[in-house]
Amino acid sequence: MHDHSGPEPAQISNPEPSSQASASAVPWQTALTDRLRFYRDLGITDFYRCAVPEPIQQALAQGAPAVPAAVPTAVPTAVQAQPAAQPRPNPAASPSAVIPAASPTEALIPRIPVPAPPAPIAPIPPSARPAALEALRTEIGDCTRCKLHQGRNKLVFGDGDPAARLLFVGEGPGADEDAQGIPFVGRGGQLLNNMIGAMGLRRDQVYIANVVKCRPPGNRTPEADEGATCSPFLMRQIQIVAPEVVVALGQTAVTWLTGQKRPLNAWRGSVHQVLGAKLIVTFHPAYLLRDPNQKKFAWEDLQLAMRELGLQPPQRKS
Ligand code: SF4
């Protein structure tokens, strides 16, 4: 009966509730007391406490209730009722190798409406990728598909090598980007250039794009309808460039790339998948400008990307 996953046993010496507690006990307390009394009658008195599963910890960290008051038993029941052989989404067909929502703990994680991943396309030869990106840019045109066009100065499509092995994804244009029509050209852009240089690469050797291509007012986070409207263009850019590694810069980028909203640190430190590329997650340069202490952790993430690309950091000049 011992579960050896827990650290210390707890002796249940007297499962009987006090009369005061019994009077005020809620149904789950009464049920628990009855179950403990049953175990005691069997001679079982040692119990171990299991660690809280990570998805529940994440949900709690995000403010979700550990057990939603409205569905205290419905979610586990629904999961139990699901036949083991019931078809589940094929991760290979999703934009990333993410785990489909199936457990009650995962159901607690907030989700956002994310467009279906684009249909697979035949690989485009590197020589044809510039034209393919140009065709996509022409298709986007003078876009008015979402409300972000209203405050736009210049649409920021993307920048870099159309056949890059490494592709960075940011959130959306800021003031400098909106003025120039090029992603990551402000202070955050300078920091991103430095990060790229630290990897032993030049900016023109990578590709850079954003979740939304028009500047959100006041640099706010893109709203759900804006991300849902614009992110399919990003996904098609990734398909065309076909990088080996995608680095998501910040929470918004990884959320729209994967369709899953988790704390950033839950993504960092491991390799995920998006549209056939390896997905690595790190902080947005704007965040690193606000908190430079995080740069060392961003460097760890970039080193993970370098490992996947087989890159060595450049030698320091003495
Ligand atoms: S953000 Fe994207 S969808 Fe919205 S107007 Fe700009 S290009 Fe069009």
Model description:
By secondary structure, this protein is α/β, with parallel strands linked by helices. The protein folds into 2 domains: 9-48, no CATH class; 126-309, 3-Layer(aba) Sandwich (Uracil-DNA Glycosylase, subunit E). Helices cover 38% and strands 10% of the residues. The chain has 13 helices and 8 strands. A hairpin with a 2-residue loop joins strand 7 (272-274) and strand 8 (277-282). Helix 6 runs antiparallel to helix 9. The termini are far apart.
Quick description:
It contains 13 helices and 8 strands. With 318 residues, the protein is α/β, with parallel strands linked by helices.
Tags for this model:
Uracil-DNA Glycosylase, subunit E, alpha/beta, binds iron/sulfur cluster, 13 helices, 38% helix, six-stranded mixed β-sheet, 8 strands, 2 domains, disordered N terminus, 10% strand, 318 residues, globular, two-stranded antiparallel ribbon
Distinct small molecules: iron/sulfur cluster
Shape: globular
The N- and C-terminal alpha carbons lie at a distance of 63 Å
Strand content: 5-15%
| Helix percentage | 25-40%
Total count of domains: 2
With strands numbered from the N-terminus, the spatial order across the biggest sheet is 3-5-4-6-8-7
Secondary-structure element string: EHHEHHHHEEHHEHEHHEEHH
